[in-house]
From TrEMBL, chains A, B:
Xanthine binds at L20, N27, K156. Its main location: cytoplasm. Residues 33-157 form the Phosphoribosyltransferase domain. The gene is xpt. InterPro entries: PRTase_dom (IPR000836), Pur/Pyrimidine_PRTase (IPR050118), Xanthine_PRibTrfase (IPR010079). It comes from Pseudomonas azerbaijanoccidentalis. This is Xanthine phosphoribosyltransferase. It catalyses: XMP + diphosphate = xanthine + 5-phospho-alpha-D-ribose 1-diphosphate.
Length: 190, 190
């Protein structure tokens, strides 16, 4: 997606061979117009997949997910990392290790919002080692629902997440595929 | 805002005299079409206020904030509750106590994204005791920026947050003002 590639080139900061900082338009400050383009693109890619729900993780996945949900006309659920006093029932949960934060956390979704008839599109801001995506897949399966595909804003293709999802047979659509961050330069696939 | 009042009546759950659960459309599962209506309403209310940035707190503030930013054509910043390894610089921060979660936390914004020329609209999902809003006001002032107003999706008017903001002279626009949650019934002001 050219508008996203351009934004990454202009405002992305390569912190190391492994870490791309995009807090100017995606992870901290958010560009709403770009999120709209991203949501429209995901909606176009998955419009024939019979999506009934979108699932993401707080917090950076919410903006692209909500724009996709607006276009497709379906609800968005964001998995929570911390338990709230207002989420009192038994929750569907899975463990996820964050390489960026060096912490393990539990993500959870209320079973009231996912049923076995749901066809779910997972949306997330980043795909790196795929731990967050695998946790969401686990939760969706616990609900008996179907994972119809994954829409990723930025994929770090040199890490293992994409290859694992491919080998599991999931459809993954990434709008920017980063081949390398070597020498402080962002190189895209294609 | 009638569409919001109706949604609260239909899908809100009164957990106690103090706690209204709206995880079916705002805090966990999100209704994107309703968020669009909410964003358009905030944009209409503040269209003449010279807004240059929107500030919210992760996670439930992001959806209404991004829709408001889309309409007004300005960036959205979400204050982070946990430090990320990619937010490495000195941060503007403030402490906030959550009555719902019974925890004190630090919220932070990178000074790279807020300047003294910014006129900031604060958007949040709930206004109760006002601790989150006061923390955001503190951060915005630390940046030397101006708080142009606050847009709140649901205000619990019987708690102290609104009165304190009024007494400080801030413009507060709440789309649903809850007068009482007594006896399991949501009563709105007006």
């Amino acid at each position: 997606m050219e508008a996203l590639h351009q934004k990454i080139r202009e405002q992305g900061i390569v912190l190391s061979d492994q870490v791309l900082k995009v807090d100017a338009f995606l992870n901290h400050q958010i560009d709403p117009a770009l999120m709209k383009l991203i949501g429209d693109e995901f909606a176009s890619l998955f419009k024939d997949s019979g999506i009934t729900k979108i699932v993401t993780i707080e917090a950076s996945g919410i903006a692209p997910a909500i724009m996709t949900g607006l276009n497709l006309g379906v609800p968005v659920i964001f998995a929570r990392k911390q338990q709230s006093l207002t989420l009192t029932e038994n929750l569907l949960s899975a463990t996820v290790y964050s390489f960026t934060k060096k912490t393990e956390s539990t993500v959870a979704i209320s079973p009231r919002h996912l049923t076995s008839s749901d066809r779910v599109l997972i949306i997330d801001d980043f795909l790196a080692n795929g731990k967050a995506s695998q946790a969401l897949i686990s939760i969706i399966k616990q609900a008996g629902a179907t994972v119809a595909g994954l829409g990723i804003v930025i994929e770090k293709s040199f890490q293992g997440g994409r290859a694992e999802l491919d080998s599991q047979g999931y459809r993954v659509e990434s709008l920017a595929r980063v081949q390398s961050l070597k020498d402080g330069v962002v190189t895209f696939i294609d």
